[in-house]
Design goal:
Layout lengths: L2 H13 L4 E5 L4 E6 L4 E5 L4 E5 L21 E4 L6 E4 L4 E4 L15 E2 L4 E7 L2 E6 L4 E6 L5 E3 L4 E6 L2
Antiparallel strand pairs: 1-2, 2-3, 3-4, 5-6, 6-13, 7-9, 7-12, 8-11, 9-10, 11-13
Length: 161
């Protein structure tokens, strides 16, 4: 008996006038007892217990407004140096190019200007282009391609001079 069969049996017993059902096979034993408030299922061989609670009203459905434009990466000055950290504005997967066969957006040594695309972060099946806010030169890429990133995680070091 799989979980779907057990759930169907629980629904049947809940709607019928039966208070208790026992099924015994050589590999498991199933005992279902119906109370007024809950239905409890106990399987002895797998030692799993299921309880069916009374139905709960679902919360109203909320709609999410689409994003107006792609997010811009946060920029913070790295401590004790003139380098600036470009940080991730969201949680997601970091990609250095638009596709496996496409060229990288930026490499170490490249000059960047405000508005130039640095990378893509995929979040919930949406690909968000991360743009630079400062003018400078890419000194270091701090994240490997196709790896997860956290919010506010440093992605690049940029020399603004």
């Amino acid at each position: 008996m799989d979980l779907k069969d057990i759930q169907a049996l629980i629904r049947f017993i809940s709607s019928s006038g039966v208070d208790e059902v026992s099924i015994e096979r050589k590999d498991f034993k199933l005992n279902i007892k119906k109370n007024q408030k809950t239905t409890e299922v106990v399987m002895s061989s797998q030692q799993v217990s299921y309880q069916q609670a009374p139905p709960v009203a679902s919360a109203p459905r909320m709609e999410v407004a689409p994003a107006a434009e792609a997010p811009i990466a946060a920029v913070e000055i790295a401590p004790s140096s003139k380098l600036i950290e470009v940080k991730s504005p969201m949680i997601g997967t970091f990609y250095r190019s638009a596709g496996p066969d496409k060229p990288l957006f930026v490499n170490v040594g490249d000059e960047v200007t405000p508005g130039s695309t640095l990378c893509i972060i995929e979040a919930m099946k949406l690909f968000n282009e991360i743009e630079c806010e400062i003018k400078g030169k890419i000194v270091k890429v701090l994240v490997d391609d196709a790896t997860p990133v956290e919010y506010d995680q440093p992605l690049f070091l940029v020399d603004p001079s």
